[in-house]
Design goal:
heterodimer, A: about 290 residues, mainly alpha, two-stranded antiparallel ribbon, B: about 230 residues, alpha/beta, four-stranded antiparallel beta sheet, 11 helices, binds adenosine-5'-diphosphate, binds magnesium ion
């Protein structure tokens, strides 16, 4: 039973990582930028949620009304910058690493390097949990899983069913020809990057709800999030969710069967094997 | 309807076109012949706005479109059937056609254009939900032409549409070129298969090493020593 609890809790945790991976994967797959600044936006959104909720007394979930549009703007502006300077895939990685380091420093200067935690009066979720039989799930992880599923499904629907989504797919497959048929890649790219930014705001909000904030959190996320992006298939949104659940459940199980410290070893062995045998991810899309 | 004057195009520091001048009249099929590497695709891509010329002018119906980016050119009435087809392989036939009509002007005529394309290529109607990447070479070429026509062009740029196709399919492609012309679309046709291209064209240009070395009526070029030597292999 402890294994089942570990696997399911792990999967729920993994869905939060999938939510972080979503925006990274979309930008990488469709815009050919590896945007580490995505982690900076998540971190910043986390601290803004904390700040807004503590200063106004609002529920942390309500702060999304401010942070999502703000991060949409930040994401869109960064993409405009990449476009303006015609930044290559590799250079985007370096530049955005710089942006991440700067953000971490700024966050440290404003909020210090100490742990920050929302007081329990404004964050009732931290104490709640849901019992299913003998299994118990903390409310924050359930919230994370709920948001992850909703955003992934929304992204998949937009990509598959709307004109703009199909235009983005076309753009991901052949930029020049997509442009030749009237697809304005700058506009679409900016909108996509904005949407990725808004998803970073949602992910960021979930950290103060679930626990404590420290400025160096991004460095804990990067490895696992990249693993999920690659296992899920770059640009494959549903694949990202499956990969998040799989990685989370695996880490959870490994942690109780062996020790928590062996989880990264197992997860990254999976990534290496996947890159060798399934270079397009574990969940290849039709035709791709 | 199209006037290209003195076009120079570079890839980085390497020049690929030197002062190329080409015109296409309304309702006319004009072909560009020349051996591999002569600069034919470079010329077509520069007209489409995929490549930006360094010098020269491109005028479409009295409007200077030299600096117009690709995504605006299609609204101005130019569409491309690119070399190697370049379909969106992991999308369906239907979605590929749909994207052909992405620009606002074409979208308004979507149903009408789709019927036209399905009449020209009935096989595309049968395969509408199949992925473009899973079609045969001939079907892919038809889809590439169909996608171009969905944009409702007044000028269609076709870059080696017969490349790598079986002779029957090549005949079908050339029949379609004539049909399209008869419906009033001008065609700028790039071909290594010079004999067939000249047969459907009224005028033609011979490109060699990035320069237009000859131009005239299709018959003149078909008879000329230069064309016979360099492209027809006679
Ligand atoms: N993307 C590119 N980068 C650099 N050089 C190129 C590129 N594409 C074509 N070229 C060069 O430009 C010249 C003309 O090529 P191209 O227009 O493709 O010829 P054609 O279509 O007549 O075969 C060739 O010398 C080719 O090597
Ligand atoms: Mg060519």
């Amino acid at each position: 039973m402890i294994e089942l609890q570990a696997a399911v809790s792990g999967a729920l945790n993994g869905s939060l990582y999938a939510l972080m991976a979503l925006g990274l994967s979309l930008a990488w797959g469709f815009l050919k930028v590896i945007n580490l600044a995505h982690f900076a936006m998540i971190l910043l959104a986390g601290y803004l949620t904390f700040e807004l909720a503590t200063s106004t007394g609002l529920s942390p979930i309500a702060t999304i009304v401010v942070t999502a549009p703000l991060m949409f703007l930040v994401g869109a502006l960064i993409q405009l910058g990449y476009e303006r300077f015609d930044v290559s895939e590799l250079n985007s990685l370096l530049i955005s690493y710089g942006l991440l380091i700067i953000t971490v420093q700024v966050v440290t200067n404003i909020w210090t390097a100490d742990f920050q935690r929302l007081p329990s009066e404004i964050n009732p979720f931290s104490a709640e949990s849901l019992a299913v039989g003998s299994l118990r799930f903390p409310m924050p992880t359930l919230l994370a899983a709920g948001f992850a599923v909703v955003l992934v499904v929304a992204a998949a629907l937009v990509l598959g069913r709307t004109y703009a989504g199909r235009a983005l797919q076309a753009f991901g497959q052949d930029r020049e020809i997509a442009s030749a048929f009237g697809i304005d890649h700058r506009l679409l790219g900016v909108l996509l990057a904005g949407a990725a930014g808004a998803s970073a705001a949602v992910a960021g909000m979930l950290f103060p709800i679930g626990g404590t904030l420290t400025p160096d959190l991004p460095f804990e996320w990067i490895g696992l999030v990249f693993a999920i992006v690659i296992l899920g298939g770059i640009g494959n949104v549903t694949g990202t969710l499956y990969a998040g659940l799989l990685v989370g459940a695996t880490s959870g199980l490994v942690a109780v069967i062996w020790t928590p410290s062996t989880s990264p070893f197992v997860v990254f062995s999976l990534v290496v094997l996947a890159l060798v045998f399934r270079p397009k991810g574990l969940f290849p899309q039709k035709g791709g | 309807m199209l006037q290209v004057t003195d076009l120079d195009v570079f890839y980085g520091d390497a020049q690929a076109l030197w002062g190329a001048s080409v015109t296409v009249g309304s309702g006319e099929v004009v072909s560009i012949v020349g051996s591999n590497g002569a600069g034919k695709s470079t010329l077509v891509n520069a007209i489409m706005g995929i490549l930006r010329p360094r010098r020269g002018r491109i005028v479409l119906d009295d409007q200077d479109v030299t600096e117009t980016p690709g995504h605006r050119m299609c609204r101005a009435g130019v569409a491309i059937v690119p070399e190697g087809r370049r379909l969106f392989p992991s999308m369906s036939v239907e979605d590929n056609l749909d994207l052909g009509a992405f620009n606002r002007v074409a979208r308004a005529h979507y149903e009408e254009s789709l019927q036209w394309v399905h009449t020209l290529f009935p096989r595309l109607a049968d395969r509408r939900s199949q992925l473009a990447g899973s079609l045969s070479g001939g079907e892919q070429q038809m889809l590439a032409i169909g996608r171009g026509l969905m944009a409702r062009p007044r000028l269609l740029l076709m870059d080696e549409p017969s490349l790598g196709l079986a002779p029957v399919v090549v005949d079908e492609v050339f029949d379609v070129i004539e049909t399209v012309r008869d419906e009033g679309v001008s065609v700028l046709l790039v071909e290594q298969n010079a004999q067939m291209a000249l047969d459907v064209s009224s005028r033609a240009y011979l490109l060699a090493e990035g320069r237009v070395v000859m131009d005239g009526t299709a018959e003149e070029l078909a008879k000329s020593r230069e064309v016979r030597d360099s492209v027809l292999g006679l």
